[in-house]
Amino acid sequence: MSKLFIISQQEQQQKNTLTDGLRLAKQLQLAPEVMFYRDESVANEAGVADISIGPDEQLATDEQLATDNNAELKQQMSDINADDIRFTPCWNKQSVDYICEHITANKYAMLLKSIHESASFRPLDCQLIRHTQVPLMLLSNNPLHKANSILMAIDLGASDPAKQALNQAIISQAQQLAQATASELHLGYVVHVPQILRDIDIINTHNLIKEAYQQHDNQIKSIGLDMEHVHILCGKADLCLFELSCRLKAQYLVIGNRQRQGILRFLAGNTAENIIKRLRSNVLIVPC
């Protein structure tokens, strides 16, 4: 059985990460595995070893803290009737490298964690988005969803083989999630039109949307969705998808992420990251 790797970030105090993650694992028929993660070292709350004591005393202090933390984590698992679930405490920042290197597609079907508040987007979230080898589920701390619906963002106009492959991966993940959660599946496609052109009315966006429906009619039919579940918009992708997910009160938004190579990874904008900053739905990011 494939596994769902759940990251519970201790300093966030988000108990729903565990319960929501275990529920989703059951729905998707995945074996859950939990990692309790925190940014700081166990040495002290600041993450810096106490230089006022000797190395032997520091080691003993660290070992005692680790023992106490493990006991606390076992109690947390027991409180949600998950004593039989494998869990690992991780107390150092190198865990990001571990996750990105060892959570591979041949062992894990999905990676799940809660997102930090959008105003304080954290390095761990960015690193996972940019480097994860498996689909990444980020749970919203401020969900809007009131409807049992899933929105998947597809680039219907993609001609590049890599983008087309990513489209298929998104569709596959979204369909599996919709079936497992008994949710209605919706498709969102954004025709990009620069803001300046929309502002000066050079382009008739209504006609663009109508043409897009006609142009991609066969492709839409091949996906098997009713037309009322297909939404084509004009504008900026991150804003349009955010607004559409809010309008649908979607529980999940499924998007793709082409992980850039080299210096572009650090310089170029990323639609996935821009959407997450406005997050009101859980987001499943499918890497390519």
Note the gap between the termini: 23 Å
- Number of E-type strands: 10
- The Rg value, from CA coordinates, equals 21 Å
Low-confidence stretches: 41-49, 261-269
Class from secondary-structure proportions: alpha/beta
N-to-C SSE string, H for helix and E for strand = EHEHEHEHEEHEHHHEHEHHE
Biggest sheet descriptor: 10 strands, mixed
List the strand order in the largest sheet. 3-2-1-4-5-10-9-6-7-8
Count of helical regions = 11
Strand content: 15-25%
Which whole number gives the mean pLDDT? 80
Q: What's the helical proportion of residues?
A: 40-55%
Query: What overall geometry do the principal axes of the alpha carbons give?
Result: elongated
Characterise this structure:
This protein is of the alpha/beta class. The protein has eleven helices and ten strands. It has helices at residues 16-28, 55-79, 95-102, 123-131, 161-181, 195-199, 205-215, 217-223, 237-248, 264-267, 271-276; strands at 3-9, 31-37, 86-90, 108-114, 136-139, 149-153, 184-192, 230-235, 252-257, 282-287. The protein has a ten-stranded mixed beta sheet with strand order 3-2-1-4-5-10-9-6-7-8, sandwiched between helices. Helix 1 links the parallel strand 1 (3-9) and strand 2. The model is unreliable at 41-49 and 261-269 (pLDDT under 50).
